[in-house]
């Protein structure tokens, strides 16, 4: 994702240019209900024109497509991964010559078409997703996994101790994958197999580990924040902020990538611990 403008103050605006399908998916996870989104669009409009010779007589002109830029307050969004288009529906918020304020309109966000996004507040989660999307090295994440396949790296299925019997572990030999996300995910699965008391997954388990200040690295998917209510979003934002304050690492994964898919199979949130929590499975969660 190319960053064209960045203002993360309250009601600040960022201007972005999606350059590939992954960027559109990141935009889908970044845009939340209540945000203001501005983008180029086409809208069918119809103008009344005066009939010649009679100033009091009007006739309706044929409808035409108007190319313009509209700003909407986001109501819902939908990502079409076949057409690679992000559809964002909302009510217009700015006065326009041909479009009434409050009229519903759908903006289509596509590759190589810039858009501007305004939020009441840029919380920790939004900033993390934005930074990851605009990080030049983030594109290498998917390339790294593709490189693993190209180099015929093995994916080995291994049994997991009784605590995790329901979730078979996939441990990847990722010599060709050198990204931080690939490494931390492999570390998680390796530890899950060899020393399961040093990892947790699932919202409640992660909350308990966080309360005990045990989290060394938090792993979570962008999908957790899409269409979440304000309370849920604030909860995860506070969790991320708290872990960073305690010198922990936070890794946000896209579910469009292999790493995110694997993490999604474990509820989308997991953690590597600073110290073992062998009794966590016996706690009443």
UniProtKB/TrEMBL annotation:
Subcellular localization: Cytoplasm
Domain eRF1/Pelota-like N-terminal: 1-135
One Pfam entry name: eRF1_3
Gene3D superfamilies, per the entry: 3.30.1330.30, Pelota, domain A (2.30.30.870)
An MF annotation (GO) of this entry: metal ion binding
Lineage top rank: taxon: Eukaryota
Biological-process GO terms, alphabetical: nonfunctional rRNA decay; nuclear-transcribed mRNA catabolic process, no-go decay; nuclear-transcribed mRNA catabolic process, non-stop decay; ribosome disassembly; RNA surveillance
CC terms in the record's Gene Ontology section: cytoplasm
SMART domains on file: eRF1_1 (SM01194)
Keyword terms: Cytoplasm, Metal-binding
Reported cofactor(s): a divalent metal cation
Principal place of residence: cytoplasm
InterPro entries from the UniProt entry: eRF1_3 (IPR005142), eRF1_Pelota-like_N (IPR005140), Pelota/DOM34_N (IPR038069), Pelota_N (IPR058547), Ribosomal_eL30-like_sf (IPR029064), TF_pelota (IPR004405)
Record-linked PANTHER family: PELOTA, PROTEIN PELOTA HOMOLOG
UniProt family annotation: Belongs to the eukaryotic release factor 1 family. Pelota subfamily.
Protein name: eRF1/Pelota-like N-terminal domain-containing protein
Lineage of the species this protein comes from: Eukaryota, Viridiplantae, Streptophyta, Embryophyta, Tracheophyta
């Amino acid at each position: 994702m190319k960053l064209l403008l960045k203002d993360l103050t309250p009601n600040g605006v960022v201007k972005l240019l999606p350059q590939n399908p992954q960027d559109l998916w990141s935009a889908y996870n970044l845009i939340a209900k209540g945000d203001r989104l501005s983008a180029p669009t086409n809208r069918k409009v119809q103008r009344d024109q005066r009939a010649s010779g009679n100033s009091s007589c009007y006739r309706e002109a044929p409808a035409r497509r108007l190319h313009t830029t509209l700003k909407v307050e986001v109501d819902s969004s939908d990502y079409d991964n076949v057409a690679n288009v992000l559809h964002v529906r909302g009510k217009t918020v700015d006065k326009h010559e041909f479009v009434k304020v409050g009229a519903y309109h759908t903006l289509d966000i596509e590759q190589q078409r810039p858009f501007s996004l305004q939020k009441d507040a840029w919380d920790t989660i939004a900033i993390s997703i934005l930074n990851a999307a605009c990080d030049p090295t983030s594109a290498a994440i998917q390339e790294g996994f593709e490189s693993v396949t190209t180099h015929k790296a093995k994916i080995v299925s291994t049994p997991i101790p009784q605590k995790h019997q329901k979730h078979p572990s996939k441990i990847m030999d990722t010599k060709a994958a050198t990204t931080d996300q690939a490494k931390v995910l492999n570390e998680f699965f390796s530890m899950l197999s060899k020393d399961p008391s040093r990892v947790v997954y699932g919202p409640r388990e992660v909350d308990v580990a966080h309360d005990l200040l045990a989290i060394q690295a938090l792993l979570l998917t962008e999908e957790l924040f899409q269409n979440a209510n304000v309370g849920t979003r604030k909860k995860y934002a506070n969790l991320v902020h708290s872990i960073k304050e305690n010198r922990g690492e936070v890794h946000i994964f896209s579910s469009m990538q292999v790493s995110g898919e694997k993490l999604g199979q474990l509820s989308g949130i997991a953690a590597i611990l600073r110290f073992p929590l062998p009794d966590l499975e016996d706690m009443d969660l």
